[in-house]
Amino acid sequence: MDSLESLTRQITGAKDLNSIVRTMKAMAAANIGQYEMAMESLGDYWNNVSLGLVAYLKNIKLENDSTNQIANTQKSKNSICAIVFGSDQGFVGQFNDALSQYVQDTLSTYEGTLEIWTVGVRVPLLLKDMGMKVTKEFNLPNSINAITSLIGSILVQVEKYRQNGIIDEYYLFHNCLVDDGAYQQEKLRLFPLDAKWRQEKAQVKWPTDKKPEVIGNSNELIRRLVREYLFVTLYKTCTESLASENLSRLNAMQRAEKNIEELLDEIGHTYHRLRQSSIDEELFDVVSGFTALKKDEY
Description:
alpha/beta, single chain, five-stranded mixed β-sheet, Pyruvate Kinase, Chain: A, domain 1
């Protein structure tokens, strides 16, 4: 049976842990806010870049150089690269486990050449445990200001592989927020911007009745549009993943806080019962001693 001293140490430790949990919960809530603001600010720009590409592909006959930058439709697509966005830190519940399982389920039937690039130190460990080979690992940015550097590093590798003809298709795997305050796993096709991509974008309605026109060097325009599209898509994916990570951490901290409060309540009741029992024993000893003294007087 626990002593009063042992219970006091447990209560002190639980209160200290609860203080840490509250701090982590507040930080997670603040981080979610800044990443959601970043996603909202990117939304209109991402739509405009997408519309620019759609308008260009609908109205301009591409030259060979431009076509090679967007899609090589003649080459058999037998190699893909999966870029998986996970987390560096723990206390995120099933954030990495669910994403890793989703990646494995999605890619398990693929028979061609497969490369897996990961962002964050947790996901590659899980994927390797599942028997999947991770070929490149990128560091997860620790702030919103460091996302640009990460995206630049990924795009350098994408361009290098594209020029060498190593990879045909790139897919992004990440967790994204949903409307009911939760997150879910998502797969997004990043590259190439081929007939399949154009077919998907063909459903996008042009916002005005005026026909768009390309002014200036069309080849330079498509290069810039493609670069911006890839950059903003990767940036948007990274911020969605980071927002989902902090939401998962917030949920985990809320569960931990509830468990700690229940533990404190249980330990507190035990402490008070034991303390009352100790007081009763002391009172009984005092009464017994007093009674014995009274008998001796008579």
